[in-house]
Amino acid sequence: MGVFRFKQFNIRQDNTAMKIGTDGTLLGAWFSVKNVNKILDIGTGTGVIALMAAQRNTKAKITALEINKDAIIDATFNINESPWSDRVELINKGLQEFTTKEKYDVIVSNPPFFENSLRSDSNNRNNARHTDSLHYSDILTFAEERLSDNGRVALILPVENAEQCIRIAKDYNLYLKRKTYVKPVPHKPAHRIAFELTNQVISKPEENVLIVETGKRHDYTEDYIAMCKDFYIIM
Asked: Taking phi first (over 0 means left), then psi (-120 to 50 degrees means alpha), and beta for anything else, what does residue 83 get?
């Protein structure tokens, strides 16, 4: 599979089941890292979101969780070869096994979302894509206890899953702060929502739309370029 090259770091992805995709990199560029000291990246995979966070915030300490041993091989290499290896701690555990007394300013995840779809022959790929090993409700449960005051949970999910997550988040004392409907091209409906939850009630959450491509393959919109230009070499 080789190496995916960003402007300030590279991602090797020979071993992990889930390769670099738009969802992860979009979330890594989108979620807020302002006034943040501690970040937890759940299901880090290759480590791309953790490394994007490290690039965007030059002081934050980042903990990256990953349950899959093959993904850990790639993430370990990628983090060690990056300029921020001293600020990113990689832990080979699932969220359910992870215990800590830390409070996090941001809990970020690009979680699996397939619940009843057909399985592949690869157990690693199934775990990376399906909610058996990690469900967004697991993240909400953890965040209710381990999110700092005014902290944020940042996720990206398909529209239906995201709307459901936002609704049930109130049961965990987490409330919508902002959300972005992600449209692949102008003439198609949104297929993802990137959203942030907080433990403070927000009377008027921010809401907007992001279109990724103009309609031509790899012809990115000005808004998407503005968000990702610090990362992608082609921008």
From this structure: alpha
